[in-house]
Amino acid sequence: MESAPVGSGRMHRTDQWQSLVGEIVVVWLNGELYRIGLVDDALPDASGLWLASEGAFQRKFIDVASGFEVWTSRYPRSRPRPRSEGREVPGGNDTDCR
User: Fold this and answer.
1) Per-residue pLDDT tens listing for the chain (98 residues)
2) Which one, of 11, 1, 3, 4, lies nearest residue 72 by Cα?
3) The pTM is what?
4) Residue pair 49/66 in contact by the 8 Å Cβ criterion
5) Which of 17, 28, 68, 82 has the fewest CB neighbours in a 10 Å radius?
6) Is the separation of the CB atoms in 69 and 9 below 8 Å?
7) Concatenated DSSP letters for 27-66?
């Protein structure tokens, strides 16, 4: 899992953007710090979120497709589930729909 020290806590890159509403996040783009801000809203499929306006910064939409990375002290990145290929399925095979 990727992590980096920020302040007194550790930050983790996360893909669980839908769970970040109300959280302070650090946003990176192309390996450079883009913005630190409060998540105002997020899409339910975790494909994008809005950072709240603050001072001179306007509300901003951040999306996965543009290459943004979101780091937080909560919600570490999901790990891929292990594949079940080559494993025997108890009670039958995957074509048995009874």
Assistant:
1) 344 544 446 889 999 999 999 999 999 999 999 999 999 999 999 999 999 999 999 999 999 999 999 999 876 555 544 444 443 333 334 333 33
2) 11
3) 0.68
4) no
5) 82
6) no
7) EEETTEEEEEEEEEEE-TTSSEEEEPPBTTBPPEEEEGGG
